[in-house]
Design goal:
The protein is an alpha/beta fold. It folds into 2 domains: 122 residues, Alpha-Beta Complex (Aspartate Aminotransferase, domain 1), CATH 3.90.1150.10; 240 residues, Aspartate Aminotransferase, domain 2 (3-Layer(aba) Sandwich). It contains 11 helices and 14 strands. The model has no long low-confidence stretch (mean pLDDT 97).
Length: 384
């Protein structure tokens, strides 16, 4: 049997990883400014993380959600404390797409309605409703096409108001990313996201915030939307939550009441996943990674402003996009082949995304900056 060939692959086979470093099957060392789609939060193979999973596996790796799993309760309590959402409740799943599916389903169940507003340039996943809410026709099969999702230009308050009132009779929710990820690190204006919250509150529509990529300290706050002083009804998380172990979650405001059998999952919140997620939160707290993400991100952003050939820089914390006047693929390739640095792409071919582990060091950032200056033919950002 062969693999179903759907992934455009880099010519790399990674065999080992530690911190912000990767090693391929030839022994070549790489600096990870990609984090496997922003998944690696506390760093590759962190000793506390590895030990937590090993220790749990020696006890029990899995049992179904038909029995009590105290690790789930411990995880919910820890997540509530560290995120500032202790009054919310948590439903555990396996991925970001699954988290969004359950957010849509809950909003529809409780409202009795079926329409949602999503935004241009968004990405919410590749399953049923999640892909229907994603602004990328190339990944939407005919079975996923749905009139239940209405798309609005991002950061366009006037059009949003028009679409909101036009669909209000059948509107279950509005979903937006805390900061758009695959779309190219586009940040909502405070007025825009607060207007979403205001209209949703006024008419009893569920405000859903997708923090799958922008959450878990990635932006220098636990959730990106916390920069804008809003509190969504529903928050979805995944990626950095498990540092590579598959886990996702849906956070529900206290006014949202659970009903037996309303949601369900076989593998979601299993013992190993909870152990991984608990280790992530403990390391984040102990090593002050949210503050470090903000500080290192600010250092990186400030340094990048010295590059004349970068058309635009966007980002918060360690979630950063660089736009060029030309295709960014050549820059990415040279970073990988000549300087052994991995970076991420975006929907726009002129964009590079930087999503390193939250514990990236200043020395590693400096190496990236010097490498980029050589590729762009720029003066070193550290030159006097």
């Amino acid at each position: 049997m062969k693999l179903f060939d759907v992934y455009p692959l880099l010519p790399l086979s990674i065999e080992k990883a530690m911190g912000s470093r990767l090693w391929d099957d030839k022994g070549e060392e790489y600096l990870d400014f990609y984090g496997g789609h922003a998944v690696i939060s506390i760093g590759h193979s962190h000793s506390a993380y590895v030990q937590a999973i090993k220790s749990q596996l020696e006890k029990i790796g899995f049992y179904s959600n038909a029995v009590i799993n105290p690790l789930q309760e411990k995880l919910a309590e820890k997540l509530g404390k560290l995120s500032g959402y202790g009054d919310y409740s948590l439903f555990l799943v396996n991925s970001g797409a699954e988290a969004n599916e359950n957010a849509f389903k809950t909003a529809s169940f409780l409202s009795g309605k079926k329409k949602f507003i999503s935004f241009r340039n968004s990405f919410h996943g590749r399953t049923s409703a999640s892909v229907a809410a994603t602004d990328d026709p190339s990944i939407i099969a005919p079975v996923n096409v749905s009139e239940n999702f209405v798309f609005c230009p991002f950061n366009d308050i006037e059009t949003f108001e028009t679409l909101f009132y036009r669909n209000k009779e059948d509107l279950a929710g509005v979903i937006t990313e805390g900061i758009q990820g695959i779309g190219g690190i586009h940040i909502p204006s405070k007025d825009f996201i607060k207007r979403i919250e205001q209209l949703c509150r006024e008419l009893g529509v569920f405000f859903i915030c997708d923090e799958i990529q922008s959450g878990y300290g990635r932006t220098g706050k636990f959730f990106a939307h916390q920069y804008f002083e809003v509190r969504p009804d529903i928050i979805t998380v995944a990626k950095g939550m498990g540092n590579g172990f598959p886990i996702g979650g849906v956070l529900f405001s206290s006014h949202i009441e659970a009903r037996k059998k309303m949601l369900g999952t076989t593998f979601g919140g299993n013992h190993l996943a909870c152990s991984a997620a608990l280790a992530v939160l403990e390391v984040m707290e102990r090593e002050n990674l949210i503050v470090r993400s903000y500080e290192k991100g600010q250092y990186l952003l400030d340094s990048l402003t010295k590059f004349r050939k970068i058309k635009e820089i966007r980002g918060r914390g360690l979630m950063i996009a660089l736009d060029f006047d030309f295709s960014a693929s050549g820059v990415s390739r040279l970073l990988r082949e000549k300087y052994k640095i991995l970076v991420d792409s975006a929907k726009n071919s002129h964009t590079i995304r930087l999503l390193p582990p939250l514990g990236i060091t200043e020395e590693e950032i400096d190496y990236f900056l010097i490498s980029l200056s050589h590729i762009l033919g720029e003066r070193s950002p550290f030159a006097e």
